Amino acid sequence: MTWLKDKLFTEKAVIAMCHLDALPGDPHFDKAGGMEKVIRHAREDFLALQEGGVDAVMFSNEFSLPYLTNVKTETVAAMARVIGEIKPLIEIPYGVNVLWDAKKSLDLAVAVDACFVREIFTGVYGSDFGLWDTNVGETIRHQRYIGAENVKLLFNIVPEAAAYLGERDIVSIAKSTVFNNRPDALCVSGLTAGTETDAAVLKRVKDTVPDTVVFANTGVRLENVREQLSLADGAVVGTTFKKDGIFENHVDKQRVKAFMDEVKKFRKDVNVC
C-alpha cells in the first residue's frame, strides 16, 4: 500500500487540475474582471470537479503564460487568495503547483494547508522559457525550513516544453531521482498539457522504480484511462475534464463524472478501493 491510500483515500488515484485564470501581473490578466472573475471561475471549476467525483484537486496558475521559473510574489499572493476564498467548500484532498517555481509552490502549500505539490525539482533543461536550472538541495532544505515536511512532493521528471541538457534516458533519470531525492512520486508527461503520456515510457519508469508512486501526468482521457492506470499508480488530469476536451475551456461536470465512473469500474475490476 502506498501513501495514496493514506492521503488521497484510494489507490489508482485521480488528481484533477483546477486551472486558475491569468492572475495580476500576468500578460493575459483580465483587469476589467479583476480578481472577482478569477475567483468565480475557480470556484465553478472546483465545484464541478469535486461534485464530479475526483479523488483530489491540484490548483495551478496554468494561464500565467508564458511561464516564469522565478515566480513573482503577486502570483503567489493571488493564488493564496483564490484558494482561501474556496477553502470552506473543499471536502477532498488538495495540492498546489506554482508554475514553474518549486520553492514558491512549497510556500503556497504551507499558506493554504495543501497536502502535496507537483514541480520540476531536478535537472537542467533547454526549454521554451530559456535555460531552466533547478537546485533540489536548496528546495528540500527550504521545505524543512518553512515547516512543510509533511507536504508530499510529486517530481515531474519529463517537463513539458523542455528537454534535458544531458544525454540521459528516462530510466536513468528515474533511477537517480529516486536514489538521490526519495520523491513521494514521479510524474511522467507528454510534450504539452493534454498530450498523452507514452504508455511505453510510463511502463519503463514504473518497472525501474516499482516501489515509488508513478503518475501519468498528461493526456489521460476516458478512452485510455484503463491502460494508463494499469501501468501507473494514478493520474493527473486536466484538459479532458474541460468542455469538449479543449485546454482553454472551463470544467464540464458531466465529462468529469463519466471519467470517474470509468475509473471506479476499473478499480472494482482490479480490486482496488
TrEMBL record:
InterPro entries listed in its UniProt record: BtpA (IPR005137), RibuloseP-bd_barrel (IPR011060)
Pfam annotation, one family: BtpA
Highest rank taxon of the organism: Bacteria
Protein family: Belongs to the BtpA family.
Designated name of the protein: Sgc region protein SgcQ
Organism whose genome encodes this protein: Eubacterium callanderi
Highest classification ranks of the organism: Bacteria, Bacillati, Bacillota, Clostridia, Eubacteriales
